[in-house]
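Example record

One chain of 213 residues, shown exactly as stored in the release files.
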Amino acid sequence: MYYNEQLYFWRQQKDDVAGMMCNPEAFDFEASERTEIISYLPDLRGKRILEPAAGIGRFTTYFASVAEHVTAIDFVAKFIKKNIKASSSFLNTTHHIGNMMDVDIENESFDLVFVNWLLMYLRDDDARVLCDRIEKWLKPEGELFLRESCVSASNPNRPHSHAHYRDPEFYEDLFIQKFSLLSKGNVVIYEQRHANSNQRWWLFKKIRFNWLS
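Predicted structure tokens for this chain:
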């Protein structure tokens, strides 16, 4: 039931920037926001990237321009169709329509998993399951970039009922069990526009365990 409610919600959103960001003002600052997020990423040259909840391709096209390969997944067909169109000039992209909670992905097949506004739409137990799966999908010492709305919506005056605005400690405590934290911060443009310092991001690295020690 929960999955169906989320799917219904997202199918009602337009396949444009405002629909992806659930904000009719998004066209005014989306490019700046995207540029800022990209600035926090590691060097992507030669990397294989997994992009869950890829939407219409706000980040997919950039990844395709610098990385070896990008796999973009979303559970809304019209979003993936638009993503495919946006990425049509690249030969290094793969697109799938599917639910990240049951998608079949080979272990240790990605250098970076890029998660942007996804866990806030999952229940706590599902977030924990996805954490375990991300760890398996990453190559040894692979990296995870995570960005979520914490405490409140990106625009605190426009919350919606389908998101969980958790404390940032929830995400740190969740991933620190399997990853080392490389860096973290907040998305500054939301401070400037909405006095909101709780658009948080983290860059983690998969821990390489020495089972012989």
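Notes: The domain at 2-12+49-206 is CATH 3.40.50.150 (Rossmann fold).
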